[in-house]
Every structure is written in structure tokens, then in C-alpha cells.
Design brief:
- Helix content is about 70%, strand content about 0%.
- The protein is mainly alpha-helical and about 475 residues long.
- Helix 6 packs across helix 17, helix 8 crosses helix 19 and helix 17 packs antiparallel against helix 18.
- It starts with 5 loop residues before the first helix and ends with a helix.
Length: about 475
């Protein structure tokens, strides 16, 4: 859920960027920001449908539910706005936890990120396969083999390092542009409308239904932490400019993800697009109803599938990079076996890539290639990281006698904890929490046996900077 060394790939001279040359710095910001937000933007492809399924198809409650989701996304983003200010060299929730509560607490957000990276790869690949099947329904019987093939291809491209990562920015922009075109056509002159009833169950408590449904759609929040860690890649910038890049990216993330989500949700309600059939997705049905079966619909499906593959590739870079950082260097003792840090000539930790490939393949097969099965597990691990970060920032605010800010962070932590609890009450998502805790505990034990090497709080920043 992070990006490559965008600045280095663009060939930006450190002095030129740091000294504030506008055009070059603007290009760098474009490359950085739109590549970083590829993951949360891609989540639009399945988060709205996840909410509708949790609402049992009740379209009348879909827009209030997604509005609540966007509200919580804003709350979490405000926390990462603070994290970027405090840690301009990167580090995210891991750095905050380590410095607020001690080094041992660093492993909880790290464990959450490891699980989140695996789930991001699995759900993005499965959703990309679903987008292709919606365009070519005849491929439906090949869903699992196609998803595994896409997984292997994306993992294979990781072998060549960060060379093609700037394409993520253009994929994100392409998807946004095509989506805006679909939205305009859908609101002004739609091709057709669906047949879903406005309310599937008007007799039940609307508030309770929304409260129980919105945590599932919080998959939309994954990737919010990326700017706070990815700024570590911007070594040619000073702290002030890294803060501006990180905060600017967070603001752009909220505007684009929030705008697209609410607009597509409103269009789904207006066109009566309900729960899709077996071989389609809701977002595909929205685009088809708005634009018809022509080139715009095909372009929408193509750009959404490519963006989802870009999100998977991003986690294939960030996840193994984190394992590599945890394996240490000759100068710095590691927590994980050195084999996970071995790299090829493109600086790719290939054995770590294999670990993520195997884990993602396992969950794709277990979910029969259905991204909606995986969404239920998705928002658990990353919300553990959100919660730790919020509590850490509340503690910093209390230490500095910033009472109002401490209350804001504390209330946000309560909202995040509630979301996490509701998701866990569904039963199966508990597996994500168990995996997070086991990984965190295992890393802590290995860290203890290694003599508790210093600097573990900065492992995320080192993973990005490397």
C-alpha cells in the first residue's frame, strides 16, 4: 500500500526539488500522490457493494451508510495528518506506538500491516478478476485460475523492482477520469436503469442496519496510512516539503476517494442498481447502466482492473520491503531470518515476495476468488493499526498539554474501536485479528531473543527509504 521511489524514477535532482523549483516539484508531487492513493481509490471497486450486501440490498440506506464511512475516513485521515507533522521522515503508526508506549508496542501495528498487505494483494487480485469477468462473462468458470495467474504475473513483475511503479499514478488518474465521465453520463443521460427496489426491508430499524453495515465498507479506509510512511522515500526533500507532500496527498485522498464513493453511491441509488449477479459487480452494473455496453463501459472495466492490479503490486513492494527491513543488515541486527532480506540486482527481496505470493494464493483459493468474501476480513487488521496510532497521538497530546487535541484523538479512537468491534462480532473476521496478534507476538519474541536491537520503531521508515 505504498509506492516506489517516485522522485528518483522521475530523475528529479535533489537540489532542484528541495530548493522549490515549482514545475519539477509539481511533477514529483503528482507522481508521488497519485501513486500513493492507488490503493484507497481502488477500494471503491468493492467497498460500496460490500455495504449494500451488509444492508441486504436496501438501497434506501446505502447513501447514509457510505456517508458514515467517509466521515470515519476523514477522522482517521486527520490523525495521519498529525502523524505526518510529528514524523516527517516517515514511520506511521509504528513510530508513534514505539515512541509513545515503548519499542515493544511497535510490533502490533507491524503485525497489522503484514496481514493487511496480504489481504490487499488477495482482494485486489480477486476484484481485478471480477472486473474482467464482468466484461467477459464467459471467463467466469476460470475465476480461480485467472486470479492465480494474475497473482503470479504481478508477483513476477515485482522481480524487476520499482521501474514501472510510476504507471500507478497514471492508472489512478485514468480511472478517475473515466469514472467522472461515467458519472456525468449516468446522472444526465443514463443508458438504462436497474430493477432493485428502493428498500428491501422497510420494517427494520434503519439506524441499527447502518451501524451494523458500515464497518464492512471500511475496507475503503485501507491505504490511508500510506502517505505517512511513503514520505520516507522523498530523501531529496527537507522535512518541511515532506510534510507538505504527505499532507497534500492525504487531502487529495479524501477528496478523490470521498467524492467518487459518494457520487457512485448516489448514482447506484438513482439508477436502482442493487446486489449484482454472480458474474458481475455492482460497480460494473453502475457503469453499464450509465454508459451502456460501448467503449466507455469497457474503458471503465479495464482501468478499474488495472488500478486493482496496481494496488496489489504496491503491496507486493511494501510487504516484502517490510520483511526485508525486519531481517536487518550487516550493520544492524535483524528480527527475521537474513534469507528474507536477500535481494536480486533490482533490489527485490525475492524470498519475501514468495512468502506473500504463497499467503495471497492461499486466501484467494479459500475465498473461491470472490473479493466480497475477503472484504469481511479486510478492515480488521488495518483498524488495529489505526487504533494504536490514535491512542499514541492522544498520549502525545496529553504530554504536551493539548487538551482539545487529546479529546479529538480519544473520541476518534473510540469510533475506530467501535468499528473494529462490530466487524469482529461477525465471527470470521476474528481470524484477521488472531493473525495480527500472532505475528506481532512472534516478532516481539524474536526481537527479545536478538537482544532487543534499537531502532525498531523506525522499521517502516527504513523499509520505505530502502
Amino acid at each position: 500500500m505504498t509506492v516506489s521511489k517516485s522522485a528518483a524514477a522521475m530523475g528529479a535532482a535533489p537540489s532542484a526539488v528541495a530548493d522549490g523549483h515549482g514545475p519539477r516539484r509539481s511533477v514529483l508531487f503528482f507522481a508521488f500522490a497519485f501513486a500513493v492513493i492507488a490503493d484507497p481509490v481502488s477500494s471503491v471497486a468493492y467497498a460500496i457493494e460490500a455495504a449494500l450486501r451488509a444492508l441486504h440490498g436496501d438501497l434506501a440506506l446505502l447513501l447514509p451508510t457510505m456517508s458514515l464511512v467517509i466521515g470515519l475516513v476523514v477522522v482517521v485521515t486527520v490523525n495521519y495528518w498529525q502523524l505526518v507533522r510529528r514524523f516527517p521522515k516517515g514511520g506511521g503508526a509504528a513510530a508513534a506506538a514505539g515512541r509513545a508506549f515503548g519499542a515493544r508496542w511497535t510490533f502490533l501495528p507491524i503485525g497489522a500491516l503484514v496481514v493487511d498487505f496480504v489481504l490487499t494483494i488477495g482482494i485486489s487480485i480477486a476484484a481485478a478478476a471480477s472486473a474482467v469477468i464482468a466484461l467477459f462473462p464467459g471467463l467466469a468458470p476460470l475465476r480461480i485460475p485467472m486470479a492465480l495467474l494474475l497473482l503470479v504475473v504481478v508477483a513476477g513483475l515485482t522481480w524487476f523492482g520499482h521501474g514501472g511503479r510510476l504507471l500507478f499514478a497514471f492508472m489512478t488518474v485514468a480511472f478517475v477520469i473515466i469514472s467522472v465521465a461515467v458519472l456525468i453520463l449516468g446522472f444526465t443521460s443514463p443508458h438504462t436503469t436497474g430493477h432493485a427496489a428502493p428498500s428491501a426491508d422497510p420494517g427494520r430499524s434503519a439506524m441499527l442496519a447502518i451501524v451494523l453495515a458500515f464497518p464492512v465498507a471500511m475496507a475503503l479506509a485501507t491505504g490511508i496510512e500510506a502517505p505517512s510512511t511513503a514520505i520516507a522515500q522523498l530523501g531529496q526533500l527537507d522535512d518541511t516539503h515532506r510534510r507538505r507532500f504527505g499532507r497534500g496527498t492525504l487531502a487529495l485522498l479524501v477528496v478523490i476517494v470521498g467524492g467518487l464513493t459518494l457520487a457512485l453511491t448516489a448514482l447506484a441509488v438513482q439508477l436502482h442498481i442493487g446486489i449484482p449477479g454472480t458474474d458481475s459487480t455492482q460497480i460494473a452494473d453502475i457503469a453499464h447502466a450509465a454508459a451502456g455496453p460501448g467503449w466507455l463501459y469497457s474503458a471503465f472495466q479495464l482501468t478499474s482492473s488495472l488500478l486493482l492490479l496496481a494496488a496489489a503490486s504496491s503491496s507486493f513492494q511494501a510487504g516484502p520491503g517490510l520483511l526485508k527491513a525486519l531481517s536487518g543488515t550487516p550493520e544492524r541486527p535483524g528480527v527475521l531470518p537474513p534469507v528474507l532480506g536477500r535481494v536480486n540486482r533490482h533490489h527485490t527481496p525475492y524470498w519475501s515476495v514468495v512468502v506473500y505470493l504463497a499467503a495471497a494464493a492461499l486466501i484467494i483459493v479459500a475465498a473461491a476468488g470472490q473479493e466480497q468474501e475477503l472484504v469481511l476480513f479486510y478492515a480488521v487488521a488495518v483498524f488495529v493499526s489505526f487504533l494504536v496510532g490514535l491512542v499514541a497521538m492522544a498520549r502525545f497530546a496529553r504530554r504536551e498539554d493539548k487538551t482539545a487535541l487529546a479529546w479529538v484523538n480519544a473520541l476518534a479512537a473510540v469510533a475506530v474501536a467501535f468499528t473494529l468491534a462490530v466487524n469482529l462480532l461477525r465471527g470470521w473476521p476474528m481470524l484477521s485479528l488472531v493473525a495480527t496478534l500472532l505475528i506481532a507476538a512472534g516478532l516481539y519474541l524474536r526481537w527479545t531473543r536478538a537482544g532487543r536491537p534499537t531502532g525498531i520503531e523506525d522499521v517502516e521508515a527504513r523499509a520505505e527509504a530502502a
